[in-house]
Amino acid sequence: MIPLIVEIEALTKVYESKLRVVAVDGIDLDLKEGEIFGLLGPNGAGKTTTISIATTRTLPTSGTVRIAGIDVVQHPAHARRHIGVVPQFNTLDRSLTVYENLYFHCRYFGFSHAQAKARALELLGQFLLTERKNVYPAQLSGGLAQRVQIARAIAHRPTVLFLDEPSAGLDPQSRMAMWGTVQELRKEGITVLLTTHYLEEADSLSDRLAILDYGRVLALGSPEKLKATLGAHTIFDLKLKSRDGLEAVAAALKARPDVTGAEVTADGLRVIAAGSDGLLPDIVQASARFGLRDLKITEPSLETVFIQLTGRDLRE
Amino acid sequence: MNNSKEIRGQRSEISPGSGEAAPHPAERPGLGVHLKAFLALFLRDLEVLTSGLGNRGSGKADSGNSFAGSPGSGIFFKAFLGLFLRDLRVLLREFHVFLARVGMQPLLFLFVFTFILPRMGGANLMATGGGVDFGTILLPGLMAVAIMFSGIASVALPLSQEFGVTREIDDRVMCPLPLWAVALEKVCFSAMQSIIAALLVIPMAYYVPAAPVRVHVANWFLLALVLVLSSLLTGSLGLVIGSTVNPRQIGLVFSILVVPITFLGCVYYPWANLGKSGLVWIQIGVLFNPIVYMSEGLRASVTPGITHMPWWAILLALVFFTAALGRWGLRGFLGRVLS
Fold first, then answer.
1. Cα–Cα distance between A261 and A184 in angstroms, integer?
2. Is residue B175 within 8 angstroms of chain A, CB to CB?
3. ipTM for the whole complex
4. pLDDT for the residue A308
5. Inter-chain contact B89–A96, Cβ cutoff 8 Å?
6. Could you tell me if B270 and B184 are in contact, meaning their C-beta atoms sit under 8 angstroms apart?
């Protein structure tokens, strides 16, 4: 059996101020060793609060969080040894160079001078930062700073790495690079918990994910499972030269059990199907005589799943 | 501000087994032990640090191997040391800036009031009775001011920035150390800077003034005690300011807090002289000002020829203000890093 690295039980957090805000409303989650787990939800869904509690920065109203078996409320200082954090903002030490950021982070975690030095140099190499070892954080681009933050977060070899909105503020290229970096962490056996409100990010990075809204878990499972069980669809968009008699084709396709919809569009035909196995050749064959010019297939996406669950769009 | 939350946070930080029920247990248990161990480790690692922190030298390659990764409280000392070394690195890199920051004010003060003004002829308006030169009165006062400015500059200003703007504190707060110890490290490091700043004033007072300054240390132990307590006091004051004042208003702190407590801190005049001059209401009013006890304590230590408060009162007040400000500052600090 794969050991559980993060155990979140009946977690709640209520902010009692002028306005009573229930940020986290009874969350249960278990993370297995080595998996990449995504927390997906719109802003204000409770993702960051959940991470804050798990990383000892916020005290829960009730419920427990255990990291590697250590209760984060009872023994926060001990739990922190197992935790690596990449926060939403750039929190690199601006008074220290890139190398020193890594070196002193290791010192904070009990490494000796020689150990810290070796680990910092190793990370600089691993994250392709060696050329920038003597640069100060203020001189780094957003993508590079994020890379240093990830390197720093795993420097003390934590059991679990928390990434809070890791691609916030990154340009598309840096985002792709960051995804690559996170995928690489798999090799190190680090368990990763990341929050995001980008569907593509959650979809392509996580082994399992939980969809959160209003502080509750709405759905939990692998992206594929969520898409399959929650009725996400593949969409085929065909561009055709002629449209005469196309209605008959649409009706014929619609009659298939795996097709949920087929309609004639301005350019040609759109087919919406629950599964795509074996459907594509039939569609191509049926539309061949209409002069097929182009075909676009949109794979099942979490976006439809999310909208179905929460009734609102993820991008606010 | 939610008290119950904070107290819960503090209590949870104690190592398992120390089941004290005191209202603020987090500030006390094992502090002396922590400090002693920390000092021992610090002295050992200082050598490694100075032998080339960056890239050179691997003389002490395996010192501390047993700590990395192994559980136990050893990690706490190591983490504390790591924080201290980080601050030391930043300080040493810009040591000339530090010297200019702490040295400029006392230097100019001494230069103007004890070198230029006496040469302008006539009686020194600021000299007190009894034939004591103003420089002798000024020396302990300037040491107190140096301690205070250093404490505020090295804790309040960076903390306020780190809390409000840069969030740099996050990484240090995430190290495997109870949160109160992270705050304590800030105060301790500031205290070290304050002591250096205060000691720097002594050679200045020796060389700059036109008339010789009469320095006489009768009791070195008391001098050390006053220096350490005063430095911890201003470090705690810095913690209070840094964790409660918005970074945009930090400049205001200087005009409405630092300047008044300096001018009313018996820096430029002995406390006893206020009474002799018939200003008893001021003499009593300034008793709420912690700087008074720093000035008077240093006056009693380095220029005992000048009338000063009794020792017991000075030490009692210094301890009281350090504890009160320390507790207040710690609450503020915890409130900022723990929600």
1. 40
2. yes
3. 0.74
4. 59
5. yes
6. no
